[in-house]
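Figure 6 in text form: structure in, sequence out.
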């Protein structure tokens, strides 16, 4: 493990130079955190109209960036869009005397930067309305299309001095407006200027609702703020707008993860997360802390959780914190968003593959709720493109649902949340020529799988320095499959997941987190299948006639405890040690995994980082690896050591670079075994044993343009190597390439919002070809009348490289109370039928590549209200 030692040594060097950095007096970046309350304008100061501009009857708009401190006071004003003629200086002077309510980050007052536009409009000198004037003009300013309130909008008249500013609910009031017809002017930062005529009648009040059109709909960022302080060295965070417009993903959050460093391209574009050479099951996915057992519907067309109900997600390809376990590759953590509290909102999205819908609304007090669902008709597409040799009895269909109820008091982040969600997939096919697949002529194949979850969580701030979050989840997973009438099985798993994390801020330099993370439940299974053939054995043509049945039921318990600290010993440094202890009741083992992450800020734009940690996961029960009939009940945990060093560089306000080197050593990997062992005094085949080793290492780069009003994008590149060692390997040292080894993987993503609500996006993907094991010869089995191939060196040849170009075009139409969008998402615009897998003819004398899908368009419309 020399590579791991080298990376740890490099990480340690970050902290040897830290005292020297502080001696030079370099300032750290601004405090970090998550914005929980935006600032509101409390006192507006009218700017002095430049005399020369007033004499020439000139008007103008000045765009500015305004820095606010923890009290809401203005500390700095910068002109970003000058208007000249003295307007810039007048706007800076007036805004310097504005008064705002404090912004809050993580629930505490903090400094932020906001964008503001000051409008200079000529108004004739007239006497102000009397103090006792009658209130005769009131209304609300809302965003056109979404009906969301627009705060801080300026409401005035063309030829009257009466003005008002809308509050946080968009409401405004003006007194003493004289009778007659007057032109009303409404302006707000980020919105187009609104003008209308209103008739005022003596003795009557005028009530209105004005709908302002945004200059850019769904702008990528409105408030400039720092991100929440990270504790993971390899964490990538995605926002909702990044998720919905990336080509080739159909707006699916979890498919977007496949475009990040550390993730290999999955064969056929399936919905698999292959992270740093690991198997897909080595990476775990969570929503609000609850583990999702099945992430994608059939073929990976879409994930099982509606992305429109997510606030965002983060991806960690390795070295994640002590609060997560039972995985030796990566982790994906998604957070659901708070349902709307401003009114009834939702959408309906109809595409060629499926239809989804969502509705959300306040339900009284501080409560709000949301319901979402999706149902597919992908069977119509597959029936048109698949061969006539397959007939659907039950077409491949999927559906999923999400229900959320939440109580979050105004201005708080803590509260009570309930959520239910689930998924179902099913299909059954008939084979016209079953002998091509099974010597026994089984001509039907079916599978049905899914899960349901009911979750609840409660977060609270016990004191100024103590925060607690507890959650629990109950659910059921199920799967049935069959091949013919005699091979198949049923599995049902009843689960309880529970957790609690208590965070204690000891002082400004030390924070402690104590936690419990556990699973418990019951399972039952009934499986009938052929026994697993010994590895490297000549195929038995009659194996499918000798079936083995196993029936299992029992209880399981997997509790874990973790402790993690965040220590800031000097300016710009963060040292995050942690330890996690897991117990596996069924297999009767205990693991203790220490972990360490290091950060050192070098000036305001550079962060050096390093990490080292142990990780473990139980063997895969879904493959029968625990059962006596098909596996080995004496298996232990698979383990790995993660190490990395890296640097994060902020190149400009919007452009950042993240570069990291990683190394992952794995041992006790479960591999097939041909040994015969004694179990309960009887000789039995071992089937599986913890005899494998693995080694993955590489370099990952992410050049990312942050979310702005019109553009975002990134370039992701992974250069890696992944190897496995098995005592049965034919090489001299026993090492071979991992099945998912992919030396090169390049992704380029960009999306731009054009005028008139057009958006275009492009994604370019290049990857090394899939590995193949060639057939070096064959023999003819007269009894079975079949040809069988001899396998050569595993993974010794590679398919040609993969290349694809995806395109997405969106057009949005904005109406007063709703919006309509049409989109075209085209995968593989260049129509490359990339090679995916090597296949042979019946007698192994010829071979060719099975190729992937050609150009694949998805057309849809989405109505939002």
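Output sequence:
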């Amino acid at each position: 493990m020399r590579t791991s030692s080298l990376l740890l040594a490099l990480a340690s060097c970050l902290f040897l130079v830290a005292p020297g950095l502080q001696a030079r007096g370099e300032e750290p970046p601004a405090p970090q955190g998550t914005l929980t309350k935006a600032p509101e304008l409390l006192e507006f100061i009218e700017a002095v109209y430049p005399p020369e501009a007033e004499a020439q009857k000139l008007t103008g708009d000045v765009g500015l960036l305004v820095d606010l401190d923890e009290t809401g006071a203005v500390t700095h004003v910068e002109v970003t869009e000058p208007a000249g003629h003295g307007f810039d200086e007048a706007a800076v002077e007036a805004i310097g005397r504005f008064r705002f309510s404090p912004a809050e980050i993580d629930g505490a007052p903090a400094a932020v930067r906001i964008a503001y536009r000051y409008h200079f409009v000529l108004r004739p000198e007239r006497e102000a309305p009397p103090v006792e004037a009658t209130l005769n003009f009131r209304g609300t300013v809302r965003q056109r299309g979404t009906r969301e309130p627009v705060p801080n909008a300026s409401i005035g008249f063309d030829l009257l001095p009466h003005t008002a500013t809308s509050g946080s609910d968009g409401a405004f009031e003006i007194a003493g407006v004289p009778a007659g017809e007057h032109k009303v002017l409404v302006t707000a930062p980020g919105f187009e200027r609104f003008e209308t005529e209103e008739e005022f009648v003596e003795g009557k009040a005028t009530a209105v609702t004005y709908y302002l059109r945004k200059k850019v709909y769904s702008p990528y960022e409105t408030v400039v703020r720092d991100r929440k302080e990270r504790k993971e060295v390899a964490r990538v965070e995605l926002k909702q707008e990044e998720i919905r417009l990336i080509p080739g993903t159909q707006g699916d959050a979890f498919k977007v993860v496949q475009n990040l460093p550390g993730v290999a391209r999955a064969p056929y574009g399936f919905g698999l997360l292959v992270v740093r050479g690991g198997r897909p099951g080595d990476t775990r996915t969570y929503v609000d802390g609850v583990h999702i057992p099945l992430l994608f519907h059939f073929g990976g067309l879409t994930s099982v959780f509606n992305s429109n109900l997510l606030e965002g997600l983060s991806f960690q390809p390795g070295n994640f914190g002590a609060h997560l376990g039972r995985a030796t590759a990566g982790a994906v953590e998604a957070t659901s968003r708070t349902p709307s509290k401003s009114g009834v909102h939702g959408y309906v999205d109809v595409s060629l593959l499926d239809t989804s819908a969502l509705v959300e609304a306040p339900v009284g007090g501080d409560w709000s709720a949301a319901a979402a669902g999706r149902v597919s008709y992908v069977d119509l597409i597959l029936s048109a493109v698949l061969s006539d040799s397959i007939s659907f009895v039950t077409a491949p269909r999927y559906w999923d649902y999400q229900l959320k109820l939440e109580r979050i008091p105004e201005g708080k982040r803590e509260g009570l949340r309930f959520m239910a969600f689930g998924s179902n997939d099913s299909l059954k096919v008939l084979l016209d020529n079953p002998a091509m697949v099974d010597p026994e002529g089984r001509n039907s194949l079916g599978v049905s799988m899914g899960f349901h979850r009911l979750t609840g969580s409660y977060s609270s701030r016990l004191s100024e320095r103590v925060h607690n979050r507890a959650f629990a989840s109950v659910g059921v997973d199920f799967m049935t499959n069959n091949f013919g009438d005699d091979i198949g099985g049923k599995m049902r798993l009843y689960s309880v997941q529970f957790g609690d994390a208590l965070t204690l801020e000891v002082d400004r330099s030390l924070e402690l987190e104590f936690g419990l993370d556990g699973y418990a439940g019951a399972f039952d299974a009934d499986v009938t299948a052929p026994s697993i053939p010994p590895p490297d054995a000549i195929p038995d043509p009659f194996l499918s006639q000798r079936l083995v049945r196993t029936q299992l039921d029992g209880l399981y318990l997997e509790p874990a405890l973790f402790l993690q600290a965040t220590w800031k010993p000097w300016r710009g440094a963060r040292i995050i040690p942690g330890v996690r202890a897991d117990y596996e009741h069924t297999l009767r083992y205990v693991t203790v995994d220490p972990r360490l992450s290091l950060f050192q800020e070098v000036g305001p734009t550079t962060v050096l980082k390093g990490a080292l940690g142990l990780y473990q996961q139980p063997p895969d029960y879904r493959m029968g690896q625990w059962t006596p009939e098909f596996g080995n009940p004496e298996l232990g945990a698979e383990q790995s050591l993660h190490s990395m060093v890296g640097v994060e560089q902020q190149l400009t306000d919007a452009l950042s670079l993240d570069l990291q080197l990683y190394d992952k050593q794995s041992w006790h990997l479960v591999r097939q075994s041909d040994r015969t062992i004694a179990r309960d005094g009887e000789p039995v085949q071992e089937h599986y044993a913890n005899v494998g080793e693995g080694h993955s290492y590489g370099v990952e780069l992410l050049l990312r343009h942050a979310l702005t009003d019109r553009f975002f994008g990134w370039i992701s590149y992974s250069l890696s190597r992944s190897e496995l060692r098995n005592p049965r390997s034919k090489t001299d040292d026993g090492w071979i390439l991992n099945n998912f080894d992919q030396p090169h993987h390049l992704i380029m993503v960009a999306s731009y919002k054009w005028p008139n609500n057009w958006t275009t996006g492009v994604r370019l993907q290049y990857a090394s070809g899939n590995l193949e094991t060639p057939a070096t010869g064959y023999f003819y089995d007269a009894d079975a009348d079949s040809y069988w191939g001899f396998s050569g060196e595993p993974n010794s040849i590679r398919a040609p490289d993969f290349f694809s170009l995806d395109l997405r075009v969106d057009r949005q139409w904005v109406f007063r109370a709703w919006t309509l969008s049409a989109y075209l998402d085209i995968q593989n615009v260049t129509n490359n039928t990339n090679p995916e897998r090597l296949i042979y003819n019946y007698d192994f004398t010829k071979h060719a590549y099975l190729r992937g899908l050609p150009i694949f368009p998805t057309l849809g419309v989405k109505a939002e209200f």
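Caption detail: Helices lie at 2-16, 18-23, 51-55, 87-95, 240-244, 253-256, 378-385.
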